Prior knowledge:
This protein has three helices and four strands.
Amino acid sequence: MLLRLSPRVPHDLEEIADFIAADSPRHALRVLRQLRAKMKEIAKQPELYRLRPELSADARLATVDQYVILFRIRRNAVRIERVVHRGRDLPPMLDESES
């Protein structure tokens, strides 16, 4: 499937990298590589990730380290909506991605 990113995702990744890099630039690069690799993996078989109706009717998520990748399947594409720390309040993250 095609992989599409919401306009928020580049900013999310930059925030994650900046936060981690304050302690360890090397670890920040590693986490970003893992996140990008997971996004590609999601696009190959998005149905492997279960629906999360408590977040949104069509929401799914995958985890990498301390972070979650929130996504939806849209026609012939996977749309990554947000990439955020798993401790965040997740339903509002999806609401923000709609705007």
